[in-house]
Amino acid sequence: MTKPMSKTSAGAAVIVRDLVKRFGTLKVLDGVSLEIQRGQMVAIVGRSGSGKSTLLRCMNALETIDEGTLQVCGHDVSSRDRLVVRELRRDVGIVFQSYNLFPHLTVERNITLALTSVKKLSKHEAQKVAHKVLALVGLSEKAQSYPEQLSGGQSQRVAIARSLAMAPQLMLFDEVTSALDPELTGEVLKVMEDLKRQGMTMVLVTHEMAFARRVADIVVFMHKGQVWEMGPPEELFTRPRTAEFAQFISSGL
Ligand SMILES: Nc1ncnc2c1ncn2[C@@H]1O[C@H](COP(=O)(O)OP(=O)(O)O)[C@@H](O)[C@H]1O
Ligand SMILES: [Mg+2]
């Protein structure tokens, strides 16, 4: 966890080329190409239904892809090889809007569960990792609490900590603050900003435009299943190249 980038040095963490994804006859991703460098934070924005979640889910092999190629943390996701998928999931963490914590387990146990069962760490080692990641998200004092005793923002930070405990090289966040009140949103955004400072590679789908503009290295605007605009936020937000993006940012979404 201390060195999320240690496994591989500089270079691309994600390479997407001409990616096509269909649900039945609906083309949800229509030729998406993009590259994400290690250590970068990429924010994906766009209207509901533009394919943001699907793109993120493809990166973790939660969706199969129909055309094109996709490389994530050195794994060829398009191969659909079971072993590749297993290795991929070990390197990639994903956090959703819903935290999916086990209500009957303490915060600490929610985090150590996969460490002891999947990673085969001893209980003591797993607890050490849990305390480390809880400190990272500022919740050391909540280790023995149960999910119902936490606020939404704290729950989401535990969900992030649980994912970090697996020492991923890449973190995917799908609208992790969308269910939170503004004041709780801030504490979760701060955790993501801290992670970026520590060198974690991150892709986040978000409606927090001010955050994306201030913190992300690259903003990707998706429209109709395509990368409609992409670039450094200052450039993109000051001079939108397309009417669609200009309209999107002026609508305050
Ligand atoms: N499992 C699915 N089966 C059928 N259609 C889906 C499925 N998942 C998403 N879609 C459709 O794909 C399109 C893109 O969805 P999504 O990637 O969730 O968009 P976004 O995250 O940008 O709101 C939408 O039209 C949505 O209804
Ligand atoms: Mg979505």
In short:
With 253 residues, the chain is α/β, with parallel strands linked by helices.
SSE topology:
Layout: E1 12-23, E2 26-37, E3 41-46, H1 52-59, E4 67-72, E5 75-76, H2 82-91, E6 92-95, H3 107-117, H4 123-136, H5 152-164, E7 170-174, H6 182-197, E8 201-205, H7 209-215, E9 218-223, E10 226-231, H8 233-238, H9 243-250
Parallel strand pairs: 3-8, 3-9, 6-7, 7-8
Antiparallel strand pairs: 1-2, 1-4, 4-5, 9-10
Helix pairs in contact: 3-4, 3-5, 4-5, 5-6
The structure holds adenosine-5'-diphosphate and magnesium ion.
The site of adenosine-5'-diphosphate has 10 residues, from α1.
Could you explain the architecture of this structure?
The chain has one domain: P-loop containing nucleotide triphosphate hydrolases (Rossmann fold, 3-Layer(aba) Sandwich). Helix 5 packs parallel to helix 6. By secondary structure, it is of the alpha/beta class. Helices cover 37% and strands 25% of the residues. A hairpin with a 2-residue loop joins strand 1 and strand 2. The radius of gyration is 18 Å and the shape is globular. It contains 9 helices and 10 strands. The site of magnesium ion has 3 residues, from helix 1.
Question: What key phrases describe this protein's structure?
Answer:
single chain, 253 residues, alpha/beta, Rossmann fold, four-stranded antiparallel sheet, 37% helix, globular, disordered N terminus, binds adenosine-5'-diphosphate, binds magnesium ion
